[in-house]
Amino acid sequence: xxxxxxxxxxxxxxxxxxxxxxxxxxxxxxFTILLIVAILWIYVIPNYVYLSLPVLGxxxxxxxxxxxxxxxxxRLTGYAYGDIVIAYSNDGTLVIKRVLALGGDTITQVxxxxxxxxxxxxxxxxxxxxxxxxxxxxxxxxxxxxHLEEDEVFLAGDHREVSQDSFDYxxxxxxxxxxxxxxxxxxxxxxxxxxxxxDLFTALPSSESPDLTxxxxxxxxxxxxxxxxx
Length: 230
Description:
The chain has helices spanning 11-17, 20-49, 166-169; strands at residues 50-54, 70-74, 84-88, 94-101, 106-111, 114-118, 124-128, 145-147, 152-156, 172-173, 177-186, 189-192. By secondary structure, the protein is of the alpha+beta class. The strands form 2 sheets. Strands 1, 2, 3, 4, 9, 10, 11 and 12 form an 8-stranded antiparallel β-sheet that branches. A 4-stranded antiparallel β-sheet has the order 7-6-5-8, with no helix packed on it. It starts with 10 loop residues before the first helix and ends in a 38-residue tail after the last strand.
């Protein structure tokens, strides 16, 4: 008759079971790690790294829709011409807009179809019939000029006729920027958001830039509308 050998206990397991303090230290370490992960997930990540926000309003149409679009926002980032950003407007409203000008620039709305950006070194960016916008610039702003301090940015909505943005309340401080939009969640899908219009913001030496004379404001009514707030 053959007998099966009994299962042997792991000596370290026997030792651990005989040392309740060691078992308690193991549990304490587990809950400490769990607490750290929870703090990172609930506080650190949304406040300093990444957050997700729904798009509300119509001022960024057609790029972003008011009906169900959600954006992923990178908090720790730099900003460039044409980037889509989340920011606090001067009245404290959280908005989603496009960066048109950066610190040190002077921006002028020449007419309903043309925006001129002069950089500190004299180089000029001319935006004509911007392909991402819906409608046209408000003619009441024709000829208006804004000079940006070094710590300011100029933001505009893509749906210019309804957007409340820097054309209305002026440049905002960089400290009011929350982050750059990097992801779009729409209809169950996800896509990466990149500045596909970067070539439009290529500066020309002042000697090569076109001579644009601002047209007088027509006095037409400035349409008000919702900012695409998140």
